[in-house]
Amino acid sequence: MKILKLSGIPPFLLICLLLLSAADPSILKNEIVLSPGSGLMTEAIGSAIDQCAAKGGGTVRFSKGVFHSGTIVLKPNVTLLLDSGVILRGSDQYSDYRNDAFIYGKDLTNIAIIGKGTIDGVDCVNPKGEEGFRGPHCIRLVNCDGIVLKEITIVRSANWAINCRYCKNGTVENVNIRGGHDGLHTRFCENFTVSGCDFRTGDDAFAGNDNQNFTISNCKINTSCNGFRMGCLNISVKQCRFWGPGESVHKIQKRNNMLAAFVHFSPKDENPKSISGNWIIEDCTIDNVDNFYNYNYESGLWQTGKPATSLKFKNIKATNLLNAFAIVGDAQRQLELSVTNSSFSFREGASNPETFEGARFASDAFFNATNFGMIVLKNVTLQKSGNMPLIVLNAGNELKIDGLFPDNALSTGQFTNIKQVIKQ
Hints:
Strand order of the largest sheet: 21-23-25-27-31-28-26-24
Largest sheet: 8 strands, parallel, barrel
Strand content: over 45%
Helix content: under 10%
Structural class: mainly beta
Radius of gyration: 25 Å
Distance between the termini: 59 Å
Shape: elongated
Number of strands: 33
C-alpha cells in the first residue's frame, strides 16, 4: 500500500483537502478543463493531453459545446472526459488527419474515453482511401493495454468506429454507435469486455480475427451487414438482441438488409495464427436477419485462413430468417456444433437464397452442414413451409439428436456419409 505524504500544508487545510477528496476523488487528480473555441482546436487539445501526460496522467475534460479538431493523439494514463452536450467533431478535410484516425493511440497503457458526449466523424472523405472514399477511423488504437470506452456516442464514422489492433484488456461499456462502417473491429486482441452497448452500423457491428477471450453481454445489434463477422478463441455472447433491416445503409452496396447474425472470419491475407473456437452464444433473440450462422471454410469470403472448431448455441429464438445454418467445414472435420433449446423460423413469403457473399450454398435446406466433426441438436425447432427438407447434413463424424421439431424435420431430413447417428 502506498501512503500519500503531504508536507508543508497547515493541518486545518490538510483536513479540509482530505474531506473534499473523499467526496470527490478527482480533486487530487490532474484535470484540465477545455472550453469550446473557434476553428480547429487540434493544437489546444493536444497540448492539454501532453500537459496531463507530463504530470504522470490525468483527465482532459471537455465542457459542453462543439469542439472541431483534426487528429487527437492520446498519451498514457490520460482520460478524455466528454461531458453531456459535448460534440467532438472531426474536420471534413482529410489533410487534417494523421495515422488514418480521428483519435489515435499507439503503445499506450491506461487510456480512457468516457462521458455522455458525442464523437462525430462527419463522414470525412478520403478520395485515395479504401473503396475510393473511406476516411479516418474514429478511434484507432494499436498495441495498447488497459482501454476504457464508456458511455460515449460515435456517429458518422468515416471508417470503422473503433479499430483496435494488438490491444488487450479493453472495456467497452454503454457505448452507442450510429451509422458509419464497422462498429468494434478488433484484430489480434485479447481480454475484451463489451456490455450494454447499442451498435446500429452500416457495416459489421463486431468484426475481427485472431482475438481471444471476449465477453459481450446485453447489447443491441442492428446493421446492414453482419452482427458478428468474427474469429475468436473463447467468446461469450449473452442476452443480446439482433434485428434487421439495418437503420443505416451499407454505403458500398446501397442496401439495408442484415446479412447474418454470426459469420466466421479468418482472412488468409491477415496471416491468421489462431483457430476460432469455444464460442458460447446464449439467451439471444434474432429477428429479420437473412442468415443466422454462416461458415464456409472452402470458399467463403474472408473465411479460409484458420478453421472454426467449437460452437454452442443455447436458448436462441431466431425469427424471420432466410437461412438458419449454412456450414462447410474443413477437411479434417474440426467443427463441433451444439444447439440446445432453440428455435429458428423462416421468413414466410420470401425465397430461398442461393448464395452468401458470392459463395453458393451447398444445399437449399434451412439447416445444412458439410464436413463436421460433431453436431448435437437438443430441443431444436425448425419452422419453414414447403416441400424442401428442413435439414441436410453430409460428411460428418457424429450426429446426436435429442428432440428435433417438427417431427417431419427428422423424417424428411437427409443425412448422408455420417459415421455415427445417435437419436434419443
